[in-house]
Design goal:
- The complex is a heterodimer of chains A (248) and B (266).
- Chain A is mainly α.
- In chain A, 73% of the residues lie in helices and 0% in strands.
- Chain A has nine helices and no strands.
- In chain A, helix 4 (62-92) packs antiparallel against helix 7 (166-187).
- Chain B is mainly alpha-helical and 266 residues long.
- Chain B has helices at 2-23, 26-44, 59-77, 88-112, 119-134, 141-188, 193-209.
- Chain B starts with a helix and ends in a 57-residue tail after the last helix.
- Classes of the chains: A mainly alpha (248), B mainly alpha (266).
- The A-B interface holds A 29-34, 37, 41, 76, 79-81, 83-84, 98-100, 103-104, 107, 187, 206 and B 1, 31, 35-39, 41-42, 45, 47-50.
């Protein structure tokens, strides 16, 4: 890639961060979106990979590579699953836009979130390096992810524009994305692995779904442990840690 | 899950083949293979061009076309006695002026694309306000006056836009004619006085591009705002032209040119 092209992508990425309203407007206008889409894809890959690498650095070794691959993969998979639904939902709630516009808005929002994740990586890395515990480390990563999610939401809110059905559309987008991204992320876990884990798997064996895990985790957080819960070896990182308070 | 993944990849393969067939871009085809829901809509179909306003053209396109014709004209003149007529400095200056005029046109387009600058909507609003006033409803005189003033401003902008577009179109036509003359002169090997005339007109147009243009209200009587008296109508401006549509006679040619002179004005 030439320096000129790289500089153009960097400019576009900066523009995405600084001017979400204009970016959303361009997506809606469906004009010359290829550079924006390519920049967004690159931002998702770069931002997600950097963030994943830092999360993986909690254990180190091969987990850095695994997490660096899986974070952007999970995000892109979730987007690929969601955009047809976004397109249909937007049309149902009064925004019959071209598929390209909806895809571009979703990608630009994801890129904005990924750029924010990229911005968080030095701070997160520093925290991990200073000896953050396992639970605090996962909370810090989740906090960064949540903030990035709000940045993405900001662009989507602007992208949908004013008019009837705006908040219903946003709520439905969030619900669909939460379900799809949750499941893809769940399927591709683990990201954060304890240092004592000898050989971290690339992905864990399939066990239940994201919704089941959410339900069980909520009960566990409330101090309710079901019989037989968290017995599987694959869940040691979460369940046993949470129950016994074992620090890495 | 494996079945789904296989189906996903199958669809991706079809998209990748389609992208490769259409664009012959390996990177684009690879992206389409793995991320077809996100990339295929952009790789397979060109994005829609922006709407072209009546009588208008995309400013950037216009500037690009002028630059291309100019380059071709300079190419045709190279190695002939007319090379000095289109020196590199002259070509650069013409291209810069054309780009500047195109940018102005683009800015006018942006302004006129804003919701508050829709002339038809403004006319409707003004008509409604006047109807209210006739029915003794509380459409205050101040509201009416400001609505008329805003309409007048929008009409001035529309006229400016049209004149800027017309000036650019004229410039392009002149360059096309110049290119033709230069190609003929190149192959005929003879000096043609037509080139001189066109070059003279060309510089006159270049000088005129940056001038403030006539901003009289739109001359279409049918489009005049209803019940707007001449007192309220926007005042004629003082540009060099008297008609907003027809090109004005060219201003005085800055100086006479000969094929052997560097013709860029001082």
């Amino acid at each position: 890639m030439s320096a000129h092209v790289a500089s153009r992508h960097a400019d576009l990425a900066g523009w995405l961060l600084r001017s979400p309203a204009q970016a959303a407007e361009q997506c809606r206008a469906d004009v010359d979106l290829r550079p924006l889409v390519l920049t967004s894809l690159a931002a998702v890959v770069a931002g997600g990979a950097a963030f994943g690498a830092v999360v993986g650095s909690f254990r180190g070794g091969v987990q850095i590579l695994y997490a660096a691959v899986k974070v952007p993969l999970a995000l892109l998979l979730a987007l690929a699953l969601c955009v047809p639904a976004f397109h249909a939902l937007a049309a149902v709630f009064g925004r019959p836009w071209p598929l390209r516009s909806v895809v571009a808005i979703a990608l630009a929002a994801a890129a904005r979130a990924s750029l924010l994740l990229l911005a968080f990586t030095p701070a997160l890395w520093l925290c991990y390096d200073l000896g953050l515990g396992y639970h605090a480390a996962s909370m810090a990563a989740a906090f960064a992810y949540a903030l990035a999610g709000f940045a993405a939401l900001g662009l989507i809110v602007r992208g949908l524009g004013a008019g009837r059905g705006r908040w219903l559309t946003i709520a439905s987008f969030v619900a669909v994305f939460f379900a799809a991204a949750g499941q893809t992320s769940w399927a591709l876990r683990p990201y954060l692995v304890r240092p004592r884990t000898e050989t971290p798997p690339f992905v864990r064996a399939p066990e239940g779904s994201f919704v089941e895990a959410l339900f069980l985790s909520t009960r566990s957080a409330a101090g309710v442990y079901d019989e037989g819960e968290w017995e599987g070896e694959g869940r040691m990182d979460h369940g046993e840690g949470w129950r016994q308070g074992v620090e890495p | 899950l494996i079945d789904l993944a296989a189906l996903y990849l199958l669809a991706g393969l079809a998209c990748a083949v389609a992208v490769w067939t259409r664009r012959r871009s390996f990177g684009s085809a690879m992206l389409a293979l793995w991320l077809w829901p996100l990339w295929a809509p952009f790789a397979l179909w060109d994005t829609r061009a922006p709407e072209v306003r009546p009588g208008g053209q995309r400013p950037r396109e216009s500037s690009d076309r002028i630059a291309r014709v100019l380059y071709e004209a300079a190419q045709a003149a190279a190695g002939t006695p007319f090379a000095a007529t289109l020196s590199s400095q002259a070509v650069e200056r013409i291209a810069q002026e054309a780009a500047r005029a195109s940018a102005r046109l683009g800015e006018l387009d942006d302004v006129l694309a804003q919701p508050g600058f829709d002339r038809a909507a403004l006319l409707q609003r003004l008509a409604a306000l006047e109807a209210e006033a006739r029915r003794d409803e509380p459409a205050s005189e101040a509201t009416l006056r400001s609505a008329r003033l805003h309409l007048a401003s929008v009409e001035r902008l529309l006229v400016m836009r049209r004149q800027q577009a017309a000036a650019l179109a004229e410039l392009e036509q002149m360059l096309v004619a110049l290119r033709g003359q230069l190609v003929v002169a190149r192959y005929a090997g003879s000096m043609d006085e037509g080139v001189d005339a066109i070059v003279g007109d060309l510089w006159a147009r270049i000088e005129g591009l940056g001038e403030v243009l006539d901003t009289r209200p739109i001359d279409d009587p049918a489009s005049a705002p209803p019940n707007v008296s001449s007192r309220d109508a926007p005042r004629a401006n003082h540009g060099p032209r008297t008609s907003s549509a027809a090109p004005a006679p060219p201003p005085a040619i800055p100086h006479q040119v000969t094929p052997h002179q560097v013709t860029e004005p001082n």
